[in-house]
């Protein structure tokens, strides 16, 4: 273990999460989810972010209003530091800013 898999740091509306590659994260309005967004355009179980062994991936779970990466609606796509993700609306839906942690030397 410890092959320098990058953690992913997510920031949204002043909140920050550091994601661990060993598990997946549920995004949505569900209060039991991992990353909760109180926005009517976000579905109850909107999407998940996980590490697939090679890269971080966001997967939309058939949300009503969609998941957007770089303003393109996506079903499942790789993401990483520098990616801009919007939930529910490509322009003004909740925005996730992604960055990486410094990989251990």
Given the helix and strand composition, which structural class is it?
Answer: mainly beta
Q: Count of DSSP helices?
A: 0
Strand portion: 35-45%
Specify the overall morphology: globular
Instruction: Give the neighbour order of strands across the main sheet.
Output: 2-1-11-10-7-8
Percent of residues in helices: under 10%
Question: Rounded to an integer, what's the Rg over CA atoms?
Answer: 13 Å
Extended strand count: 11
Mean of the pLDDT scores?
92
Biggest beta sheet summary: 6 strands, antiparallel
Straight-line N-to-C gap: 14 Å
**What is the ordering of alpha helices and beta strands?**
EEEEEEEEEEE
Uncertain spans, ≥5 residues at pLDDT below 50? none
Explain what this protein looks like in three dimensions:
- This protein is an all-beta fold.
- It is built from no helices and eleven strands.
- It has strands at residues 8-12, 15-19, 25-28, 35-36, 47-51, 56-60, 67-69, 72-74, 76-79, 84-87, 95-100.
- The strands form two sheets. The chain has a six-stranded antiparallel sheet, with no helix packed on it. A five-stranded mixed sheet has the order 4-3-5-6-9, with no helix packed on it.
- 25% of the residues are buried.
Summarize this structure briefly.
By secondary structure, the chain is mostly beta strands.
Attribute tags:
single chain; 105 residues; mainly beta; 6-stranded antiparallel beta sheet
């Amino acid at each position: 273990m410890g092959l320098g898999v990058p953690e992913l740091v997510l920031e949204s509306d002043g909140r920050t999460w550091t994601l661990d590659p060993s598990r997946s994260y549920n995004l949505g309005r569900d209060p039991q989810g991992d990353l909760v967004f109180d926005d009517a355009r976000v579905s109850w179980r909107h999407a998940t972010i996980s590490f697939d062994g090679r890269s971080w991936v966001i997967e939309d779970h058939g949300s009503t209003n969609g998941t957007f990466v770089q303003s393109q609606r996506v079903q499942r796509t790789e993401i990483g530091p520098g990616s801009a993700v919007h939930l529910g609306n490509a322009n003004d839906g909740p925005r996730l800013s992604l960055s990486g942690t410094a990989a251990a030397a």
